[in-house]
Hints:
The protein is α+β, with helices and mostly antiparallel strands. The protein has helices at residues 5-9, 54-57, 81-96, 117-129, 140-147, 188-203, 209-219, 249-272, 276-285, 299-307, 320-329, 332-339, and strands spanning 11-17, 21-26, 30-36, 39-42, 49-52, 67-70, 73-74, 77-78, 105-111, 132-139, 158-163, 168-174, 177-184, 205-207, 229-236, 242-248, 287-290, 311-313. Strand 11 (158-163) and strand 12 form a beta hairpin.
Amino acid sequence: MCFNFSKYLMRTVAVDLGTVNTLVAMKGRGIVLREPSAAAVSVGNPGETLAFGREAVQLVGRTPGGIHVVYPLRDGVVADYTLAADMLRYFIEQALGHRVGAMGIRLVLCLPLCVTGVERRALAEAAKEAGAREVLLLDEPLAAAIGAGLPVFEPAGSMVVDIGGGTTDAAVIAFGGIAACASIRTGGTHIDAALREHVQKTHGVLIGERMAEDAKLRLGSALPGGADQMEVRGRKLEGGLPASVSLTGMEISHAMAPEIRRIVETAKEALAQTPPELAGDLYTNGIMLTGGGAKIRGLDKLLSHETGMPVLVDEDPLDCVVLGALSMLEREEAFASAAKTLEI
């Protein structure tokens, strides 16, 4: 048998390539990059990319007509293949501190459960275009559960609900594998969009994505109530002049409610598929919330009320997936078992 030295000489990089944010981590260094999954492109010169990540986001809503800010991924999958590959290469090179060499890298990508086989292959090909010699795909809820410190390798059930920018995964995990799951293309961006639509229909004012997200984070809640107010600014649909609207926490929560309900129903769907032997464990171990959506106020209380189980929010919900992937890499046998059916 010929020993493959190149596999062990390649740098191993774990990537949580999200709809809204991308995190990159490396063995021995932890998280080395945290950037928005955005690109600023030239409208007049197709194919010319002006900026990626944070620099691109700063241009949202403030760019001249010749610059367009786009997100190459939508709901966890590739919307623009070429741009996604270029963005991923840029992030990897920023994390490494240099260009990807001829030897390439070993790349671990964490993906939502709702991603189809065709979409997985597209993401893997984008990763190879970015310089990856070997691409391994890992289910996000498994990585999130490990990153949150859940005992996923023990003979007992643990549950995680990972709420990202474009998707939500709910999974019950035992013995290092997923025993029951449900996934939906709903996440933080859909909640923001629902809030923008509400302001547009109710007040006749168009607000931007960043303004909607700010309102969600400041006053939004999964539970009804809230008399606090905040001012959101945009432009009137009639006439196009600048305008401001005062929103209450109650109004914001009402606008968010349909998408929040979809997230809760996804968690309940996973519970309905859980084997009885594991379901009993969950009443003791509870449910762990991860991902950016875990920060929504009152979501843990609402989910606990709906399921009758304790619900916890991880201390660093945004980091769980990529840190879990790194931790999984240290358990080579377990990692091979989890990723072998997903290797491209």
